[in-house]
Amino acid sequence: MSYFAGIEAVQYEGHESLNPLAFRHYDPTAMLGDKTLEEHLRFAVAWWHSFAWEGGDPFGGRTFDRPWFGSEMDKAKAKADAAFELFAILGQPYFCFHDVDIRPEGASFAENTANLEEMVDYIGTKMESARTRLLWGTANLFSHRRFMSGAATNPDPDVFAFSAATLKTCIDATAKLGGENYVLWGGREGYETLLNTDLKREREQAGRMLTMVVDYARKIGFKGAILIEPKPQEPTKHQYDFDVATVYGFLKDFGLEGEVKVNIEQGHAILAGHSFEHELALAASLGILGSIDMNRNDYQSGWDTDQFPVSLRETTLAYYEILKAGGFTTGGTNFDAKLRRQSLDPEDLVAAHVGGMDICALGLKKAHAMIEEGSLQAALEARYAGWNDPANTAMLTSDLATIAERVARDGINPEPRSGKQEKLENLVSRFVA
């Protein structure tokens, strides 16, 4: 059975094409520097939003009517069939999944595990004849009511145990399918009120759980990267993994900064009060940039709407930071984005990914051009050029008294110098106009 009947494989037709189901900017085989666009971008489809989401929102339920919806194993396999059909249409190199996306929910941990193992075998068989690989797997430890107070941070030790056991099965599944990363996504690792919360205990539980994940992954020979996805504000006010800086402090506290990197989502960066490029640049500077979820929020709604990217400026600035950091290694560009609940047709799912892939490809090209042209980097280096003087660099290993003597002796009395922000913003606009 075809779930996307009549929809041909998407082709690159060039920027003048008017075909809504053709790539205008993403030619996967085109070279950009020393890599193809496909090697740079490493696109992935999110199994959850593309195939498991039913179109609901806080004010209304399901609007989608997919033939694979249901809690039976044959429906889960039909969902996998539909997924690989879409992967082939898009020419997608990767996909990502949570355990609950690919398996039916069982009545017990044992049943969940059996269902997951059966579906991993089924997906593995489909991968044998497909070009699409697994970018990363993860566990959904937030949707079921048992996780209402968190997973690793839950006050109930039985929930902690159930979560740890589930993580083991998901790491096993990711390793078996050849995943290049494993992601920890702590959707409910936070709290609603301090009146019933022991912050110190919960944070220590989270640190211990992450340590066990790293230890187990290495024990079974998993070679991929372990990633944490920073997750601010939703659904709780206070999340333990709020942003890149918070996650890095957490990793340092538990001695895991050399073992774990971050998977950064654009929408989460905005919810944390940052720009996407800020989070990317900070992660790169700390040596923990791993992978990204590319989406956007509706800036008027104030919550995580998970929309496909459409802004050339946003994608350009994001890939500018990624390219400056050396590009992806095991990471990639996962579309953690969903259709609008009024977009019901199979064609809508194809068109959404085509548009997202195209705007990312164009943004990557613009970012590469900015780096090649060099004006931004030259302006940055000029702003800090004074630090190239050995006498100035020596201050960073000196002391206050010695520096004070130097200021008095040399009559140092600095005047402010322009940061030229508007000029640099105009420079970016030359590339993205």
Describe the fold and architecture.
- With 433 residues, this protein is α/β, with parallel strands linked by helices.
- It has 16 helices and twelve strands.
- The protein has helices at 37-41, 47-52, 73-90, 99-102, 109-128, 157-176, 199-219, 244-253, 266-271, 276-286, 312-324, 346-373, 375-383, 390-393, 400-410, 421-432; strands at 31-32, 35-36, 43-46, 94-98, 133-138, 181-184, 190-191, 225-228, 238-239, 260-265, 289-293, 333-335.
- The strands form three sheets. An eight-stranded parallel β-barrel has the order 3-4-5-6-8-10-11-12, surrounded by five helices.
- The longest helix is centred in the last third of the chain and has 28 residues, at 346-373.
- 39% of the residues are buried.
- The model has no long low-confidence stretch (mean pLDDT 96).
- It catalyses: alpha-D-xylose = alpha-D-xylulofuranose.
- Its EC number is 5.3.1.5.
- Its main location: cytoplasm.
- GO terms for molecular function: magnesium ion binding; xylose isomerase activity.
Supply the key terms.
433 residues; alpha/beta; TIM Barrel; 2 domains; eight-stranded parallel β-barrel; two-stranded antiparallel ribbon; 16 helices; 46% helix
Secondary structure class reads alpha/beta
Sheet with the most strands: spatial strand order = 3-4-5-6-8-10-11-12
- Largest beta-sheet details: 8 strands, parallel, barrel
Report the helical percentage. Answer: 40-55%
> What number of domains?
2
How many angstroms separate the termini? 44 Å
Gyration radius, to the nearest Å? 24 Å
CATH-scheme architecture of the largest domain: Alpha-Beta Barrel
Subunit arrangement of the protein: single chain
Mean pLDDT, to the nearest integer, reads 96
Binding site for Mg(2+) 1: 229, 265, 293, 336
GO cellular component, one term: cytoplasm
Subunit structure: Homotetramer.
GO molecular function: magnesium ion binding; xylose isomerase activity
